[in-house]
Amino acid sequence: MNWKKFFGWIGVALGILLITVLLVWAVILFSEIAEIEAEIEDKKSTIAELAEELKAATLPPVTPVPAEEEKEEIVKSDPVEFALIAGGMPAGELFQTPVQTIDVFNEESSWLIAEPGAILDDAATWVIPSVEAEHFANVPEGGFTPFSLGKGIITVDGVSLVLPGAKGLNYLVLIRGRIDDTIVDSDLNMTAMVVEFVPGHATWSIMPPGAYVSKDWFREQLVTSTTTGGTNCGATGCTTVHVVLFDVDSHFYQKFEVKAGDLDNWKLLESN
Fold first, then answer.
1. Structure pTM?
2. Bridge pairing between strands 253-259 and 240-247
């Protein structure tokens, strides 16, 4: 008997058996792993379903609300509503022209009305607005704007001159524009807004540049208001004139009362 060959075949048989056992074990192992993975996936699915059920049970259904269109709010800025009332705040530094005066009504108004001064000749154009609406007047750099009206509100540079109407009363208003800066193209002209006046009666114009408004010319306006009346008083004029003076640069403001028949005697009513 060839023992060597015999034991050789036994070794081969044992090797085949060992390989078979290993293969069977590997198949069983991979089968168990696949089952475990399937179990895990099932549990994940179950957990997800439970979470959805819980969410549906605790939270009410949400109905989407359509977004509202954003509307742009338009705010109208009324210059009169937001303006300061003249005299309500202290004035700034008032510019006093170095031109020597030779005749004035009084010391208080001498910064604006004096001789020698600017005048409006008979050819000057006066604005007489015919409709009840906002109107605008130029307040010239280095010059003056005169108004004659029975009532109204004049707003310039954020300040309102409030002129309430009364029987037998006329207002003569003088506004001095910004002081001429002598710079070309700087344009310091201002715009005054006039409202709440009586259409067809209120008047205004633009005076030429000068150091002052002529005292003699202004006295003629007082005579007109208290005798023939102009457009704001009857045929025999008004008994009272309120003279309102305003400086755009400093917001300096004065209001005087003048009575018919005593035009050179001015009573200071208000000032800042």
1. 0.68
2. antiparallel
Alpha helices in 60-203 (DSSP H): none
Helix (H, G, I), strand (E, B) or coil at 152: strand
d(CA 35, CA 44): 14
The DSSP H or E segment spanning 217 is helix 215-226
User: Among residues 84, 105, 79, 132, which one has the least CA distance to residue 221?
Assistant: 105
Residue 235 and residue 229 in contact, taking contact as beta carbons nearer than 8 Å: yes
Paired tokens of 130: 């015919």
Question: pLDDT for 48-75, tens place per residue?
Answer: 776 676 666 554 555 555 555 544 443 3
Q: For residues 214-234, give the mean pLDDT.
A: 91
171, amino acid identity: Y
Question: Angle at the Cα of 268 (from 105 to 134), degrees rounded to 5?
Answer: 95
Other C-beta atoms lying within 10 Å of the C-beta of residue 12: 10
3-state secondary structure of 144: strand
Task: For residue 21, give both structure tokens.
Answer: 């056992």
What are the angstrom distances between the C-alpha of 43 and each of 51, 115, 176? 12, 107, 92
Longest dimension (CA), the chain: 169
Structure tokens that stand for 91 in this block: 């004035």
